[in-house]
Write a structure and sequence with these properties.
about 280 residues, alpha+beta, 3 domains, 6-stranded mixed sheet, 9 helices, about 15% strand, globular
Length: about 280
């Protein structure tokens, strides 16, 4: 059977090391398995980040992007590819950064301010693609978004020109100007402690070992980081969340490990809250 164009394009990109995923009309990701169709699993709005689904791997949002042809051709993803309007890719997963220029004024600014690189025409502007990953930030200036880690971009063709190394001028766009006012340290905004039931842990070493193993699991994640963080939080809370053993220091260690892998503080908070909700804590 002849494959539909989106899956053929996706497989070609995956073969070159570019993690891909299907997009439906409106440039929105699918839930790629029937369980997650129409956001039934509770993912964030527009399926942009995974929800607490029970799929064997993240099946939607940027975290689902993969280079594995067995996953792309799997039966669970087949219905998404049949309806796909386009292919998206995870730039950060391919070691790239997309500067999304959304209007002619933004394009003019880039031509004056940024080094020339691989350029792809879009409906309203251009994508400038650099070699190197960084954090994704929207609205760094009027009509300019940065798409790299924990984000996806629509595949619009090979473009023109040679890809240049990610310049400091682009990295600087993601750095906010420091406030002149003194700011207090940000406090964790989620309930961190569990219940006050009887503690089943006979020694502090049991909890210490569990936290260390959770940190290691997050740190060693090579893909699907967001889903790994959520599942790790879920595992920690299922074991230690009801007896009051967890302290702010323990949870701060987990959040720090996740943020070191590129998770934002907001994503950490959401993952922790979702895990607590799933467990009824």
């Amino acid at each position: 059977m002849t494959q539909p164009p989106p899956i053929r394009r996706a497989l070609a990109l995956a073969a070159h090391g570019v993690p891909v995923l299907p997009l439906r009309a409106g440039k929105v990701p699918f839930g790629n398995c029937p369980t997650c169709a129409d956001n039934a699993c509770g993912g964030r709005p527009n399926m942009k980040t995974p929800g607490p689904c029970a799929c064997p791997r993240p099946c939607h949002g940027w975290a689902a992007a993969t280079t594995d042809p067995h996953v792309l051709n799997s039966q669970s993803w087949a219905f998404a590819w049949r309806q796909a309007a386009a292919v998206a890719y995870h730039p950060g997963g391919a070691g790239m950064t997309v500067v999304d220029l959304d209007n002619p004024a933004a394009v003019d600014w880039a031509r004056a301010a940024l080094p020339a690189t691989l350029t792809v025409a879009t409906t309203r502007g251009e994508h400038w693609i650099y070699q190197g990953a960084m954090r994704s930030v929207n609205g760094v200036r009027d009509g300019v978004d940065i798409k790299s880690s924990m984000s996806y971009a629509r595949w619009l063709g090979p473009g023109t020109g040679a890809m240049a190394a990610l310049p400091d001028a682009v990295r600087a766009l993601a750095v906010k100007e420091p406030s002149t006012a003194r700011r207090a340290p940000q406090a964790l905004t989620v309930p961190l402690r569990g219940g006050q039931g009887e503690c089943p842990h006979r020694t502090p070493a049991y909890l210490a070992r569990g936290i260390a193993m959770a940190e290691q699991r997050i740190t060693e994640a090579r893909s699907a980081v967001h889903a790994t963080v959520y599942r790790t939080f879920l595992a920690v809370l299922s074991t230690h969340g009801r007896c009051g053993c967890l302290t702010d220091a323990h949870v701060s260690r987990l959040f720090t490990a996740a943020q070191t892998k590129g998770e934002s503080a907001r994503h950490c908070t959401d993952a922790w809250t979702n895990a607590r909700t799933t467990l009824g804590l």
